[in-house]
Amino acid sequence: MPDLPIVMDIYAQARTFMIENDNPEQWGTVHPPQTLIEADIHAGKSYVCTLKDNSQEENEKILAVFFFNVEPDPTYEKIEGAWIDSNTPYGVVHRIARTTDKPEVKGVGEFCLNWCFQQINNIRIDTHPDNVPMLKLMDKLNFVRCGIIWIENGNERIAFQKI
Question: Cis ω on the peptide bond leading into residue 32 (within 30° of 0)?
């Protein structure tokens, strides 16, 4: 896992961004923990979005990280509201974060979510009510607000689906 320190740094940058942008509760100062990210990587469910840069010796810069999986997510079993389609297999996106080191590169989150949608054309995702950038991205990409779900610790999240 040679990229793990870079991935964890991106999550640290995302936590700082959230705190500075009136969303201090979603990830706090420690989420996601490294053990969770390591488990995601070992399970083959952690992805990175890179930018090729021929001027650098390393040639690629990791711009974003995210969890993606195609199997039922227990968090989405109970919803206050209704999924657009509750019977078809779906992909799940969690823990999407981008580096703040390259603010001039636009559309990274959009690129990641569109890639997921190319893998399976039924995606579910959720976010904290205070995560304004993600709420705007959901709207831009035509995700439908389906209702409220609750994560393991009991906190609510706004649930979205795109088919």
Answer: yes
